[in-house]
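Might I ask for a little of your time on a matter of protein folding? Here, with my thanks, is the record as I have it:
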Amino acid sequence: MLYQFLKVSYRNITRHKFFSAINILGLMLSITICIPAMMIIKNQLEFDNFHPHPDETFRVITQVNYNNGDNERFASTPVPLTEALQEYEFVDAMVPMYRNLSGKASTEEKSLNISGSFTKPSFFDVFGFELASGNGKFALTEPFSIVLTEHNARRFFGDEDPLGRIMSIEGIGDFTVTGVFKEIPQNTHFRIGALASFSTLPLLHQDSEISSSVDSWNDYRRNLTYLKTKEGTSKEAVLEAAKTISAYKINELNFPEHVENYQFDVQTLAEISPGEVLRADIGAGKAYPMENLIILMVNALIILLMACFNYTNLSIARALKRAKEVGVYKVLGAYRWQVITQFVMQSTLIAMVALILAYGLLPWIPLPSRIMAEVQSITPD
C-alpha cells in the first residue's frame, strides 16, 4: 500500500514538472535559510552546559551608576573582590580571570602575538575545560606558568612537545609551558588563548610591570570574577553578599565626577548566553542576547511560512484538476482516508526533496562569515 502511494505521488510530481519545481525551489530556499537559523539558536541555548556544576557557578558583574541617571553594566569586576567573596561560607571556589596577559610572545623559533588571562588552579575545578597534556591541579600553581590552547601550541612550537618550553611575553616575563588544552568547545562564552598563573601577579606588581589595578577597587574593567557555591546555595544569597561588599566599599572610593557609584550583580552560567550585552565581556560577539535569537527565529519562521503559503496558493489554483483526480479515485472505489493519504504523501515527498536539496545547498550559500562559523562548528564533518 505504501509503495503504491509513493509511486502515484512520484508520477504526479514528474507529470506536473513546472508546478513541482516551483514548490520544491521555494521550500528549498526557505529551508536553507531556516537550517542555519535553527543551528545558531540551538548552539546558543547549549552554551556552557558542559561544565560540571553549571547551576552552582556564577559570574559577578558590575553596574556603574552615573550622576545623570544612566548606568552601564560590565562583565568585569575589581580584582580584590575575589578575596572578599572568599570569606563567605557558601563559596566553594573562586576563579578570577585578570585579562592583562597580552603582547608579543617569543620562543627560540618564533615571535607572535598572544592574548589571555591570569587565573588560579581552581579554574580547572570549576569549569569543564580539559588538558591534552599537563595536570590541571598543578599547571597554574607556580608563578610564571602558562597553559596554551592547542592552536597556540602549534603556532609557537609546531609538532614538538611544548611542555617545559620557555616563552617570553614582552613587558611581562618568561613563562614555562605547563599544559596544553584539549580543543576548546565552540559553545562557550569564553575566549581562551592562554592562561597564566595568578600567583605571578604579585611578583609583577612589585616590579611595576602590572599596573596598581590588581589592588584597586576602582578598576572594574580588567578582571572577571567567577565563583562556585556549595550545593543548595541560592542565587539570592550570592547576590546579597555581592551587594553587601559593594555597599561597604563605596564609602571608601573616590569616583570620577560623572560616576555616582557602582554595585555588583550576579549571573548563573545559563544566564550569560543567551543574555544581556555587557561591556568588557570576554565572550563579546560569541554570546547573543535573547532578543537577537527571538528576532532570528521569527524571521526564519516567516520565510518558511511564505513558502508554505506559496505551496497552498498553487495547490488551490490546481483545485479543479485535483477534483477530477478525486472523482477518479472515488469511481475506482477508494476510501476517503486513502485519498487524503495520497495527497499528504505527495506533499511530504515534495518537502523531503526540498529538505535534502537545502541541506546539500547549505555550504554554498554566501552566508556572513560569522554565521557560517556558527554553522560549521555544529555541522557534522
